[in-house]
UniProtKB/TrEMBL annotation:
Keyword vocabulary terms for this entry: DNA-binding
Alphabetical list of PANTHER family matching this protein: HTH MERR-TYPE DOMAIN-CONTAINING PROTEIN, REDOX-CYCLING DRUG-SENSING TRANSCRIPTIONAL ACTIVATOR SOXR
GO MF term (any one): DNA-binding transcription factor activity
InterPro entries hit by this protein: DNA-bd_dom_put_sf, MerR-type_HTH_dom, MerR_fam
Protein name: DNA-binding transcriptional MerR regulator
PROSITE patterns reported for this sequence: HTH_MERR_2
Organism listed in the record: Kribbella sandramycini
Annotated HTH merR-type domain residues: 5-79
Cross-referenced SUPFAM superfamilies: Putative DNA-binding domain
Pfam families the UniProt entry points to: MerR_1
Signal peptide range in chain numbering: none
Length: 219
């Protein structure tokens, strides 16, 4: 997160280069509507970060170019806060599924943890609600409250491709069991907290699994 260090006057000068009609009153109004939340000094002065400026730029662009009402823009910002990426037009979209790896970086923290609604997951993965329901019933995709993590995209897409070969979600439960066992083994070494060592071990276990499967396939 960028350090909040810009005054409202400095933010105004930055944005006026692109939005000539913006005023301090407009910026204060957007803050009052909850579209941006600048930090406050002990004296009560607003301090904006570079991220706040980009957020304001997104709002002003959506108003000017797409004529979106503030309610819709606020929903879009909420989606961006959950890890979706802005689209040129229309609502934010989920990022592309990560590479299969395996590298230690694939198991590390990514800054903003992706949190998708059910509709966003279905759209991002390109699967049917029926398939997602089956994956959930077998514990292969699990929601955290009302949202799903980015790995759910990979699981759903892989399951859909496997289904084309006649492999149904119920056949995939051993993968979930194996994953649970591998995580249990890693936690025996590193403990429950995620560390750099955790990421390295996770990459190694996936590499080992891949090599074992490959070695057992017919030549």
């Amino acid at each position: 997160m960028a350090k909040p260090e810009l005054s409202i006057g400095e933010v105004l000068r930055i944005l006026r280069a692109e939005f000539s009609g913006v005023t301090i009153s407009k910026l204060r109004f957007l803050e009052a509507e909850g579209l941006v939340s600048p930090a406050r000094t002990a004296s009560g002065y607003r301090k904006f970060s570079a991220d706040d400026v980009e957020r304001l730029r997104y709002v002003l662009t959506a108003q000017r170019d797409q004529y979106l009402p503030l309610k819709v823009i606020k929903e879009h910002l909420g989606a961006i806060d959950r890890g979706l990426r802005p689209a040129v037009a229309g609502p934010p979209v989920a990022p592309s599924a990560p590479s299969a790896g395996p590298r230690a970086d694939d198991f590390g923290a990514t800054g903003i943890e992706l949190r998708l609604t059910r509709a966003e997951l279905l759209a991002a993965a390109g699967v049917s609600a029926e398939l997602l329901g089956e994956l959930e019933s077998h514990g292969l995709v699990v929601a955290d409250g009302k949202h799903y993590g980015g790995d759910a995209i990979v699981v759903a897409q892989a399951a859909a491709e496997l289904a084309a070969y006649g492999i149904e979600p119920r056949h995939l439960r051993p993968f979930r069991t194996a994953a649970d066992r591998e995580v249990g083994l890693i936690e025996q070494v590193t403990g429950p907290r995620r560390t750099e060592q955790t990421e390295q071990l996770a990459a190694l276990t996936v590499r080992l699994h891949t090599a074992l499967v490959r070695s057992r396939l017919p030549r």
